[in-house]
Amino acid sequence: MYTPLYIKTDNSLQQSLIKINDLIEYAKKNNIKSLTITDNNMYGVMDFYKMCITNNIKPVIGLECVYNDKKIVLYAINYDGYKNLLKLCTLLSEKNLEISNLEKYSNDLVCITPFDSLDIYNEIKGFYKYIYVGYKNKEELESITDKNTIYLNETLYLEKKDNEYIKYIDAVRTGVPLDLVTENHFNNYLLLEEEFNTK
């Protein structure tokens, strides 16, 4: 079953255009049976979970964490894993994560290390029973050796046509004038299964 693995909602302040209710409606319309929420906080998790269950969509609860200025994405396997995400989220709101925090609260979590964070993979790989390297294109995939890989595309808006609006969020977040925004989020929309199968 196809599950988009790295969905941020507008609970990730000034990063995403996606509202949870719009996400659920879009999934229903496009027959997506499983969804993740992977914000950099846990504010929207309960609304997301309840709306998924109500609409017969499998919810996967995750959290984007930053360690040594590198992102990793963690997913709860069960309720104990969910409690570990809550603990990590609390720590993230108070201070920078330390390696000891990741180790202490690693049980019952799946870890995906995005390609851009490969340099911390070896440091954290012993903490997780299930750990993968996320790739977003064929070039990244072909350069990864001796590691389990999984497709990981950060999703910041629902449809490809919404790409033109994400630059306004970038401008507000960075303080850069709109005409000088250089970030390219052209592929950060929610892939449907037929598109995913071509990756």
Question: How would you describe what is shown here?
Answer:
The protein is an alpha/beta fold. Helices cover 34% and strands 18% of the residues. The chain has 8 helices and 6 strands; from the N terminus they run H-E-H-E-E-H-H-E-H-E-H-E-H-H. The protein has a 6-stranded mixed sheet with strand order 1-2-3-4-5-6. The longest helix is centred in the middle third of the chain and has 16 residues. The mean pLDDT is 90.
Structural features:
alpha/beta; 34% helix
What is the CA-based Rg, rounded?
16 Å
Q: So what's the overall shape?
A: globular
Number of helices: 8
Number of strand segments: 6
* Portion in strands: 15-25%
Q: Tell me the series of helices and strands, N- to C-terminal.
A: HEHEEHHEHEHEHH
The poorly predicted ranges are: none
Strand order of the largest sheet: 1-2-3-4-5-6
The end-to-end distance, rounded to whole angstroms, is 15 Å
Q: How is this structure best summarized?
A:
With 199 residues, the chain is an alpha/beta fold. The chain has 8 helices and 6 strands.
Secondary structure topology:
Layout: H1 20-29, E1 34-37, H2 45-54, E2 58-67, E3 70-76, H3 79-94, H4 99-104, E4 109-114, H5 121-124, E5 130-135, H6 138-143, E6 149-151, H7 163-174, H8 193-196
Parallel strand pairs: 1-2, 4-5, 5-6
Antiparallel strand pairs: 2-3, 3-4
